[in-house]
Amino acid sequence: MPLFTPGRRWQPAYYPFKKVSKGQRALAFVERVSKGPLFGCRMCGNCLLQETAFICPMECPKGARNGPCGGSTEAHCYVDETRPCIWYEIYERAFKMGRQEMLLEVLPPLDWDKVGGETWGDVMRQVQVVGTKKVFTALVKRDKEARAATWDAVFRPVRQPDWWQGDAEYHAPAYDEPVSELERRLKAGEFVVTAEVAPPLSAATGAMCRNVELVRPYVAAVNFTDCPSATPRMSSIACSTMALQHDAEPVLQIAARDRTRTGLQAEVLGASALGIRNILCLSGDHARMGPPPQGRMDVIDIDAVQMLWILRRMRDEGKYLDGRNLKFRPQFFLGAAGAPFASRPEFQAIREHKKVNAGAQFFQTNLVYDPDGLEIWLNELAKRNILDKVYILIGITPLKTLKMAHYMNDDVPGVFIPQPILKRLEAAGDGVAEEGVQIALELIEAIKGKQGVNGIHLMAVGWEEIVPRIVTEAGLARPQLAQPELCLN
Ligand code: SF4
């Protein structure tokens, strides 16, 4: 009990809000002093070291338990440049140990009731369930497979509680008829275009609605971001609802950053009831990217892979995360972010594979300026046999100024602009915006025929009026459309 706050039990930060027995406290202490120095254990109480090449992933500032975010690089974590991306270390070691396929298992979010406590008690209980003698006999056997099976029988129930039951398998959507126009067009084999329209920075909606009207005839769906750069804007769900009122099909982007598991499930049920069908699941820019004063950054409830898993099960199995049944199931066409240039292509491919297994039906990628690099990423996805399980829309942004190009290349994680493109923009002088449009058109042409590419995602944020021109000049406008006015302002 603290000296100056009588009546309060002393409780270090992030310890469970409950009193545990002396035995459990002693076990937790031993676990902390042994696993801390050995594995960098953070005492999350939901240990998954078996699946992460024996490196604790809990030092990731985004709390990602299922792989790197789109900002990961070989050099450092994009949130805290003084440390490496822990997921890069995990992937590297997993490849060296031949354990990379284990990274595909969809791991659960934390059971916060266990945070700060020990995991060894759970392991010991599971050893008793399997049979102490059987476990020890199997562990000294030479038979590698029997050893692995016994090991898994002990540790799998510990890391995969009944309410989660994650695996490394693909789960095809449990429905046949497309639930959205975007899905219908993709299923029909159309090369689709989606475009981003920026949500307003105030309560005024006029400009956004005009932009929605402007791009609507040229695209299959309109994306609304969810507070990019962790900076508040109008909510994606409000913008998506307004898009429906303007006869445009929305893609609701949801960032895990701002959601608890309760909030997420409540929001997607509401979205489905409002008629929003396309949902893009993202981890979101870290809170540290936002303007000061910065909010709490250490508690992140779910990651993007877990979000996909939760939403897919709500739709296909009619279950809430806690196991309760949903009487009327929501309808979703689920998307995720693809990041061809984030980490090494073979690392990234595991991450994308995991997202597809968890429930991603389409990818919208980060910006692509290097068709050859894109090809390498696509080849890695092809090796994993996932190109026929997911639709891929490639992110294209016309570069309007040289400053923007340098900013994207130097400061936006996962974006790479080759030198020849930067040189072209430099040489263009006052005609840089026009050169940017030409580059975008050339990129679309270069990626159009690539294996596994099903469309483009135009992110001309703040320059939405260029969308009709790019779509038309790229030959992607639907036939009934008139030629648009050319606008480069
Ligand atoms: S780069 Fe992303 S995944 Fe890697 S440690 Fe940082 S926040 Fe986590």
Strands, helices and their partners?
Blueprint: H1 22-39, H2 86-97, H3 120-130, H4 132-140, H5 144-159, H6 181-187, E1 192-196, H7 206-215, E2 221-224, H8 236-245, E3 250-255, H9 261-274, E4 278-282, H10 304-316, E5 333-338, H11 345-358, E6 362-367, H12 371-383, E7 391-396, H13 402-411, H14 419-428, H15 432-448, E8 453-458, H16 467-473
Parallel strand pairs: 1-2, 1-8, 2-3, 3-4, 4-5, 5-6, 6-7, 7-8
The structure holds iron/sulfur cluster.
Number of distinct beta strands: 8
CATH architecture of the domain at 181-473: Alpha-Beta Barrel
Please state the CA-atom Rg, rounded to the nearest Å.
24 Å
Helical amount: 25-40%
Task: Report on the architecture of this protein.
With 489 residues, the chain is an alpha/beta fold. It is built from 16 helices and 8 strands. It is 39% helix and 9% strand. Strands 1-2-3-4-5-6-7-8 form an 8-stranded parallel β-barrel, surrounded by 6 helices. Strand 5, helix 11 and strand 6 form a beta-alpha-beta unit. Helix 3 crosses helix 5. It is globular, with a radius of gyration of 24 Å. It binds iron/sulfur cluster. Iron/sulfur cluster binds next to helix 2.
